[in-house]
């Protein structure tokens, strides 16, 4: 009799257990249809993010592009919304701010549940992450040139000029000797030389004391300055314009490129008289013919430092501003003008140029 009672009870319970299991599976299956965020760039809580950064988020599956917009993808600094352009491709959405982000500030990016996959399923909940930009509210420190600052042109292997140039400031060459200074019609004096093309003095390593030791020190200071500029960390701007900065207004800060930089059209450097710009260029710096670099709002050439691992080349009739620290060499094409200092760890080549120290 007991067995007859137990069997019907078990039989009654089995459908209930089965139905409960089915409901749970249905719930899990439904949850599995919801898209998720796989990764973000920058990462959550990442620091020293470049101020020209494009924010991106990658989803677990293809999303409905119509749901990826400024309504579902936002960027804020505190309560202030940052204007930007949203784009979507593959499984990745990007947010490109229309203005440069502020230095050393916290930002919050959000993907809301308005974002849906192609089946119309939304995120389970809003996805939010924060990051901090690079830089500081204070001006960055200028590069200390040491005694290299005494020269408008300083080189190690040669200074070659195709007459006639107009140079204002002193020239220095070391360890190469006077014979490696060509095209300037030198008049040799004790410890230095002069030239009709130079308002200043010309020094080489084989001239009378104390010129040799002074030049050795200046070249060492030039290399130290180059390494200082190259070693500055946490750039405000990374790969700006993917290396093509023509037409851009350059605000104060630290800029970094991992390859060549070209300037095919006019550029403005804008800031006050105490602001500092440091440009780190891992490849060549090439300025096209007739292109002008112009200073604005009080910016000074003496506070603009171009650290160039490759060759710095300035096109015909171009005009450039700033201190150029080149590991490879500096060449000025016919009629190019320059307000700054040309400091090269190899040679400086001139061709009928106007070169003026700041």
Give a brief rundown of this model:
By secondary structure, the chain is mainly β. Helix content is 15%, strand content 39%. The protein has helices at 2-32, 211-231, and strands spanning 37-41, 46-49, 55-59, 73-77, 80-81, 84-89, 92-97, 106-111, 127-133, 153-155, 158-162, 166-168, 171-173, 181-182, 187-189, 192-194, 198-199, 202-204, 237-238, 249-250, 253-257, 261-263, 267-270, 277-281, 285-287, 293-296, 304-308, 311-314, 319-326, 329-332, 337-344, 347-351, 354-356.
Please provide a written account of the structure.
With 358 residues, the chain is mostly beta strands. 15% of the residues lie in helices and 39% in strands. The chain contains two helices and 33 strands. The strands form six sheets. Strands 10, 12, 13, 17, 18, 19, 21, 24, 27, 29, 31 and 33 form a twelve-stranded parallel sheet that branches. It has a seven-stranded parallel sheet with strand order 14-11-32-30-28-25-22, with no helix packed on it. It has a five-stranded mixed sheet with strand order 2-9-8-4-5, with no helix packed on it. A hairpin with a 2-residue loop joins strand 15 and strand 16. It is elongated.
């Amino acid at each position: 009799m007991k067995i007859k009672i137990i069997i019907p009870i078990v039989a009654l319970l089995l459908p209930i257990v089965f139905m409960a299991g089915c409901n749970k599976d249905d719930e899990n299956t439904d949850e599995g249809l919801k898209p998720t965020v796989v990764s973000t760039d920058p990462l959550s809580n990442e620091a020293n993010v470049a101020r020209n950064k494009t924010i991106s988020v990658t989803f677990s599956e293809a999303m409905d592009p119509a749901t990826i917009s400024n309504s579902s993808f936002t960027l804020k600094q505190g309560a202030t919304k940052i204007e930007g352009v949203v784009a979507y491709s593959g499984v990745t959405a990007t947010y490109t701010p229309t203005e440069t982000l502020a230095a050393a500030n916290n930002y919050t990016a959000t993907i809301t549940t308005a974002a849906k996959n192609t089946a119309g399923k939304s995120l389970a909940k809003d996805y939010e992450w924060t990051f901090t930009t690079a830089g500081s509210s204070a001006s960055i420190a200028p590069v200390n040139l040491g005694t290299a600052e005494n020269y408008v042109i300083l080189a190690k292997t040669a200074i070659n000029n195709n007459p006639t140039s107009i140079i204002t400031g002193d020239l220095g060459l070391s360890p190469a000797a006077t014979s490696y200074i060509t095209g300037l019609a030198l008049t040799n004096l004790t410890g230095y030389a002069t030239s009709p093309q130079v308002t200043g003095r010309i020094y080489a390593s084989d001239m009378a004391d104390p010129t040799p030791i002074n030049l050795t020190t200046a070249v060492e200071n030039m290399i130290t300055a180059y390494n200082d500029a190259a070693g500055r960390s946490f750039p405000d701007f990374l790969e700006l314009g993917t290396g093509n900065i023509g037409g851009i207004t350059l605000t104060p800060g630290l800029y970094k490129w991992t390859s060549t930089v070209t300037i095919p059209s006019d550029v403005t450097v804008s800031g006050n008289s105490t602001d500092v710009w440091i440009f780190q260029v891992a490849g060549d710096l090439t300025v096209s013919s007739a292109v002008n670099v112009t200073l604005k709002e009080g910016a000074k050439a003496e506070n603009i430092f171009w650290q160039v691992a490759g060759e710095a080349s300035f096109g015909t009739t171009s005009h450039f501003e700033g201190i150029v620290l080149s590991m490879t060499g500096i060449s000025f094409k016919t009629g190019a003008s320059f307000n700054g200092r040309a400091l090269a760890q190899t040679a400086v080549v001139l061709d009928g140029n106007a070169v003026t120290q700041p």
